[in-house]
């Protein structure tokens, strides 16, 4: 939730639409609770009997974020919630279930211990899901940090200190904790861009900074105070917060909470109850008399004698009658209108300040300290090192086989894009010819450029160097491409080779296409086994510069040949075309004129050409031969073009 009301709707006009390439090479802090809750809910809505959707989603989303998008994710886990948030959770539960909350004030002080039994059971189930995901992420080699309280608070702190480049969370109070870049909604296998919010765009758009957002949370409510101040919505809170700068907004709220009115000049700490009435602050401005007939300055009597300067007439008889809803724009009327608007604004300020002063414990100092705290890491749970290690494939296979009932070949095949990404990053940092992908595959070539989800990739071909699968009679067959639509077995372990060869396809549970990444393809040619994977272009160029340069040169030669072939073809077609006559400009020919002109052009083209030296008399004396239609020897398509083009 974050800040109450429609706070995200207020920020949405300033969101940037970014594609999958935005996160490549960047560190991102992920709110793990947000992933578990949102994506597990979506999976259960599609398939209610899904087996541990939190494990499945965390596995596939992490692979896509790391391998396909090229990001370096850091996962942050919630710690113990603050007493204020525990109270808010209990209040939200009672409000959603329609049960009246307990009236004892001691229950509020006890915090989570006073939570009802359904809330405790739900929290216990969620905690078990978080532990399962943490075990999975550690086997994947991802860094996991534990927050003291809110996970989005630690994500924002890492972003504010420059440890990560963005935060992935749906809680809008990440900006209140100090985040600079927040990604709200992101789908790994979706062509549509995701929403990315930058604090710089928000500051330049609506003029809100961190402390001003904290003030808005105090007014309209948040995760720590569901109700806020009665009568305050997003628009009212924004209007009030804009009256003060960021450096003085919280001090002014403390003054208003003590009953001090901060807007009067010349008064020393005036109390809101002792404020003078707005009507007695300044004497009313005397408005000059206006004509009741035309509404312009001047009396009706004077207009009847001297006329109206605004109507430009000499007597009242010709003075124009004012229309319905007429508003005079003379200087005296504008001054009176401005004074009226000023008094209305002052009345609104007094009304708002009296409403805030009537609130008990406003502003809540504990909420302010929570949002402005810069130490959100739970040091007892671990250090702050952000290290990405190699995944433990064998442990992952055992874990997912037990929890998800997946086949080992299915797990290994989906791990391959992540392993290839790690392998190429190692080759880019320290090239080593003896280093192999999964200790079995070496880089072979770049097949082509592939566009997937609007982003270009290299289709890379990997060759297996040890223990190639020999298929009987395969030496006289064309290369066979498998694994496009089935979970084809990819041999990554020699001990399981015989068992996995017998099961060419694996029966797995239905998967969500938005989460599950594309499977690598298996290519068998004679006794050799190749893999085809989609890899990032920049990463391949850095890992294998010579091979990438050769592929790019071959692509340039291919494009040059294609251009030359097209130019020759267009020249040959232009030589066969007849010269076109001038077209009428501005007037379209009728259908009769069009066919008449084309018929005449066709008759002239079909006449027999006159040979030099042959006179008309010699031709007349000789035997008359029938005219030969040269166009009949042409293809039908070319004749049609000559006739109608």
Automatic annotation (TrEMBL):
Q: Where is the composition biased (Basic and acidic residues)?
A: 593-611
**GO terms for biological process?**
DNA repair; pollen development
Needed cofactors, names only, are: Mg(2+)
Q: Does the keyword Nuclease apply?
A: yes
Under the heading InterPro entries, the entry gives:
5-3_exonuclease_C_sf (IPR036279), PIN-like_dom_sf (IPR029060), XPG-I_dom (IPR006086), XPG/Rad2 (IPR006084), XPG_DNA_repair_N (IPR006085)
Q: Where in the cell is it found?
A: Nucleus
Q: Name one Pfam family in it.
A: XPG_I
Native source organism of the sequence? Triticum aestivum
Q: Which UniProt keywords apply?
A: DNA damage, DNA repair, Endonuclease, Hydrolase, Magnesium, Metal-binding, Nuclease, Nucleus
Q: Which residues form the XPG N-terminal domain?
A: 1-109
Signal peptide location? none
Ranges annotated as biased composition (Basic residues): 633-645
GO: which molecular function terms?
5'-flap endonuclease activity; metal ion binding
Protein name per the record = Flap endonuclease GEN-like 1
- Identify its protein family: Belongs to the XPG/RAD2 endonuclease family. GEN subfamily.
Region annotation (Disordered) ranges = 492-520, 553-645
| Residues annotated as domain XPG-I | 138-208
Where mainly located? nucleus
Q: What GO cellular component term, any one, is given? A: nucleus
Q: Where is the composition biased (Acidic residues)?
A: 492-504
């Amino acid at each position: 939730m974050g800040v109450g009301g429609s706070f995200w709707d207020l920020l949405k006009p300033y969101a940037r639409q970014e594609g999958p390439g935005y996160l490549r090479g960047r560190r991102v802090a992920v709110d793990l609770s947000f992933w578990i809750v949102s994506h597990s809910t979506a999976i259960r809505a599609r398939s209610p009997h899904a087996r541990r959707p939190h494990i499945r989603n965390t596995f596939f989303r992490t692979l896509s974020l790391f391998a396909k998008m090229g990001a370096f994710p850091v996962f942050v886990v919630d710690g113990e919630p603050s007493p204020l948030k525990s109270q808010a959770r209990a209040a939200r539960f009672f409000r959603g279930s329609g049960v009246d909350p307990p009236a004892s004030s001691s229950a509020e002080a006890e915090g989570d211990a006073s939570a009802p039994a359904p809330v405790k059971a739900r929290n216990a189930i969620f905690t078990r899901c978080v532990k399962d995901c943490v075990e999975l992420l550690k086997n994947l080699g991802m860094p996991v940090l534990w927050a003291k309280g809110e996970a989005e608070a630690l994500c924002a702190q890492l972003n504010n200190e420059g440890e990560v480049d963005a935060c992935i969370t749906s809680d809008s109070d990440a900006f209140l904790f100090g985040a600079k870049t927040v990604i709200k909604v992101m789908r790994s296998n979706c062509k549509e861009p995701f929403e990315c919010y930058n604090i710089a765009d928000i500051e330049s758009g609506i003029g809100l900074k961190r402390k001003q957002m904290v003030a808005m949370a105090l007014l309209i409510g948040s995760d720590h105070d569901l109700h806020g101040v009665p009568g305050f919505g997003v628009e009212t809170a924004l209007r009030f917060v804009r009256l003060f700068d960021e450096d003085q907004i919280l001090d002014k709220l403390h003054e208003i909470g003590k009953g001090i009115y901060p807007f009067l000049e010349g008064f020393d700490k005036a109390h809101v109850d002792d404020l003078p009435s707005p009507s007695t602050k300044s004497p009313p401005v005397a408005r000059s008399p206006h004509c009741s007939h035309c509404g312009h300055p001047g009396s009706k009597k004077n207009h009847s004698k001297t006329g109206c300067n605004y109507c430009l007439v000499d007597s009242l008889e010709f003075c124009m009658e004012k229309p319905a809803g007429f508003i005079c724009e003379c200087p005296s009327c504008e001054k009176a209108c401005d004074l009226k608007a000023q008094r209305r604004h002052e009345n609104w300020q007094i009304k708002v300040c009296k409403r805030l002063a009537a609130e008990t414990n406003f502003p809540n100092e504990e909420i302010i300290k929570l949002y402005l705290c810069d130490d959100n890491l739970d040091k007892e749970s671990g250090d702050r090192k952000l290290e990405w290690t190699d995944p433990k494939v064998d442990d992952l296979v055992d874990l997912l086989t037990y929890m998800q009932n997946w086949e080992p070949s299915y797990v290994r095949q989906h791990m391959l894009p992540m392993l290839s990404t790690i392998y190429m990053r190692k080759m880019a940092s320290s090239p080593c010819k003896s280093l192999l992908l999964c200790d079995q595959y070496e880089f072979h070539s770049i097949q082509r450029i592939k566009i997937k989800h609007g982003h270009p990739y290299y289709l890379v071909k990997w060759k297996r160097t040890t223990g190639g699968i020999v298929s009987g009679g395969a030496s006289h067959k064309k290369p066979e491409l498998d694994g496009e639509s089935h979970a084809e077995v990819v041999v990554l372990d020699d001990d399981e080779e015989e068992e996995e060869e017998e099961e060419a396809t694996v029966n797995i549970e239905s998967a969500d296409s938005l989460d599950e990444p594309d499977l690598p393809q298996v290519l068998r040619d004679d006794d050799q086994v190749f893999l085809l994977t989609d890899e990032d272009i920049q990463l391949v160029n850095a890992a294998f510069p010579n091979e990438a340069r050769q592929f790019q040169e071959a692509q340039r030669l291919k494009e040059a040949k294609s251009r030359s072939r097209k130019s020759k073809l267009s020249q040959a077609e232009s030589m066969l075309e007849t010269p076109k006559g001038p077209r009428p400009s501005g007037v379209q020919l009728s259908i009769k004129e069009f066919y008449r002109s084309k018929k005449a052009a066709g008759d002239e083209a079909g006449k027999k050409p006159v040979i030099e030296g042959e006179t008309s008399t010699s031709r007349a004396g000789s035997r008359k031969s029938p005219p030969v239609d040269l166009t009949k020897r042409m293809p039908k398509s070319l004749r049609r073009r000559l006739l109608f083009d």
